[in-house]
Amino acid sequence: MNTIDAFHRDGAELYGHSSVRRGFLGRLALVLHSIARQIGCMLERRRGRLALLEMTDEQLKDIGISRCDAHREGIRPFWD
Question: How many CB atoms lie within 10 A of CB 65?
């Protein structure tokens, strides 16, 4: 094994990408991490949409969005 392979293997195991079969807890942790990341993305999207609703007409004009478009985007559900 050369040095690059050793670093790649060690780094992969460090981040949970080893070729060894995962146990139940390892798989559960991955699923929970994935769910938490997805919820975080949805909440971030919602915060961005709410920020559009708080912008003034001048700010919306600066970014090229009409008040109607901002309202339409701002009322969308967080999962959409």
Answer: 16
